[in-house]
Amino acid sequence: MYSIETDKKWQAKWEETSLYKFDDNNLDKKLYVLEMFSYPSGSKLHAGHWFNYAPVDSWARLKKMQGYNVFQPMGFDSFGLPAENYAIKTGIHPSDSTEKNIATMEKQLKSMGAMFNWENEVITCRPEYYKWNQWLFLQLYKHGLAYRKNAPVNWCPSCKTVLANEQVQDGFCERCGTEATKKDLTQWFFKITDYSEELLQCLDKLDWPEKTKAMQRHWIGKSTGTNVTFKVADSDIEFSVFTTRVDTLFGVTYVVLSPENTLVDKLTKEEYKDEVEKYKESAKKQSEIERQSITREKTGVFSGSYAINPINGRKVPIWIGDYVLNTYGTGAVMAVPAHDERDFAFATKYKLPIERVIEGGDSLPYVEHGKMINSGEFNGLTTKEGKEAVTKKLESMGLGSGKVNYRLRDWLISRQRYWGTPIPIVYCEKCGIVPVPEDQLPVELPYNVEFSPDGKSPLLKSEEFMNTTCPCCGGPAKREADTLDTFVCSSWYYLRYVDNKNSEKPFDKAKIDKMLPVDMYVGGPEHACMHLLYARFITKALRDMGFLDFDEPFLSLRHQGIILGPDGQKMSKSKGNTISPDDCIQEYGSDVFRMYLMFGFDYSEGGAWNDDGIKSISKFVDRIERTISSVKEIIESGDTGKTSMDAAEKELNYTRNFSIKSVSEDANKFQFNTSIARIMEFTNALSKYIQQKDKNISLLKDTVIDFVKIIAPFAPHFAEEQWESLGKSYSIFNEKWPDFEPNALIRDEAEIAIQINGKIKAKINVSTNLKEDQIKELSLSNEHIKSLLDGKDIKKVIVVKGRLVNIVAK
Ligand code: ANZ
Ligand code: ZN
């Protein structure tokens, strides 16, 4: 009987024979299959990890049997907040707890029996890895893609560190859910914005979920419009606004600057200074999210100055309002209250003029496109034509030009936390910012540091770390005390896997050019605008710096859904609804656990755990085992000599070939649940056939071989065991995946269901040559159906050829 002992037996054999060792000599058929690596946060592997890894391993096994040379590495994203927070909670040093957790998780992962290439493991918190993280930082710095600036940045008061824009979701810290605030700090950034356009364009050619691509497009936020220059009346000051609707330029009745715009002080007239100062103070307390909210009441103050609309010379008041963000466009907008919601609300509140310049709609604001009116020489042009014509005119006047803006901001990568890669920078009073020379890497993270966060970088407290000598002049210097965002570690780990033992370089160019891009990447959808964007950027940056020759890291991407507790809630220890993979595999064996995950859920959707579900899979596996063992007995008891293909043989052969075809196609598309449903049907067909008196033994022999082969990816240990019991030579995973025989799929008989009022009452086999009328007749003459219809009135009979007959009766 299959059990965890079967798992252990085959795991030992696989390891002993290096069955899954990647073949460096067969790169033409390489298939790089990657699952997002996990972070050892303290808790053990949970059902979600399994759901990410095990079905993907089944997919990879199918590919291996189809002749691919599979590379499927695994590692640990072991720096960062989860590990550090766990350490803070338990008081155990993050380095100790992390190493211990990694050991536990490795053991658990091995019990899954996946084809992981452990010899390629990457652990990001070890100096062998983060040395190259520092190297990456230095390359970006050398090429102007890493820089330091003072900026208002997102701050999480609970994690006590800055956060990248991507890590603030709807205003809250992505890690702990605390509302993020703003702080003015000098921080390090990576210049991802240099790649905005390419990051956007290349999305089109990626085989990724559409939703994820749409999220990235939205996050990059390309916006095509016009910068328009307004001169300030009675002054030589001028400023630009960014607009996507320059066709409404004649409708501008005022302009608005953001409170942080540096021109505000210069433009504010004496008598308005007090009020403007007060307004600027209050704006500081609002988050950008609040300021952008459509429902929030728009506020503003008048500056006392006026600007000149370049298109018609009209003098319009300059206001200051916090619905204008300083971090987007030019930090100033032209207001067209007749055609923009926010401007309309603002103008109504402050009694500013509202003038229509686009025809259409019954009421204002009218925000759609239309024909230009009240716009002088441009009257009659459509919005599209108008945008072009007005921009051209402004260009000829030297007062404007076409402009593309992106919402994407540079990636903030410094963190005021201990458990991360030290940023390899030294500050010298004489030489300023000095990068640590490459031959002095790694800058090691010191062990003896008080790591509890207090808002300042914990490394500041380590004199031994902080005080150093300047690599330039040899004088006294201080190290950078911040550490790198852990998303830097994960932005290139897939490159290191290929060449993880290289001590000279982060990776060998020739090697990774052969092994990458990753062919199939699988992980959670929550990474859409973080990890998946950063990794694309780093790949492109490394390409432009000459370290690799491809454009995109991940050609195909799939997301797994979330496994919820039996109560339909997110699994959590406090709710007591967690499912322990360890307990499950102890009780049922890892293949049953794996198969249940694949059969019980749509892979990309996930769903609620169901104990009955795993029990029924366990019974199903037993049933397969019994069926195979009966088949074996029959085969061993001698050949009957029957070679003909009668109806029963044809039926079995049909199911066999249909299963091969469907399982190959469905599993390839990550539709594991339907793949397993087909295997269930195959099992039924096989056990039905062996009850037959007169059996075709040679057909049975061939069939059972295919049967075990197509089970193999989904229940790998179990299938090895069955394969061995059939007397076949090790290993089934070196066998070729079966092909189906198209001729066997042409049926001359098909089973059809007979329904009465939509409920199935009987099943009959009919020749596929029959006409609808004949099928109808056959159904109505079925004895069982006849008895059920007794005394009823037949209203209608619907025939769906090859599938069913529905009799509507009262
Ligand atoms: C005048 C106008 C008239 C606008 C109209 C819209 C409709 P996207 O698509 O997001 O790029 N805008 C520009 N800079 C802004 C800032 N820093 N803060 C807040 N709003 C800003 O949006 C571009 C539009 O958002 C611009 O076009 C501008 O308003 C506003 F009938 O200009 B529009
Ligand atoms: Zn110096």
UniProtKB/TrEMBL annotation:
Main location: cytoplasm
Chain positions of motif 'KMSKS' region: 570-574
Domain Aminoacyl-tRNA synthetase class Ia positions: 408-598
Protein name listed in UniProt: Leucine--tRNA ligase
Occurrences of domain Methionyl/Leucyl tRNA synthetase (ranges): 37-183
PANTHER family: LEUCINE--TRNA LIGASE, MITOCHONDRIAL, LEUCYL-TRNA SYNTHETASE
Reactions the enzyme catalyzes: tRNA(Leu) + L-leucine + ATP = L-leucyl-tRNA(Leu) + AMP + diphosphate
Localisation: Cytoplasm
EC id: 6.1.1.4
InterPro entries in the record: aa-tRNA-synth_Ia, Leu-tRNA-ligase, Leu_tRNA-synth_edit, M/V/L/I-tRNA-synth_anticd-bd, Methionyl/Leucyl_tRNA_Synth, Rossmann-like_a/b/a_fold, tRNAsynth_Ia_anticodon-bd, Val/Leu/Ile-tRNA-synth_edit
Residues binding ATP: K573
Record's keyword annotation contains Cell inner membrane: no
Short name of any one Pfam family annotated for the protein: tRNA-synt_1
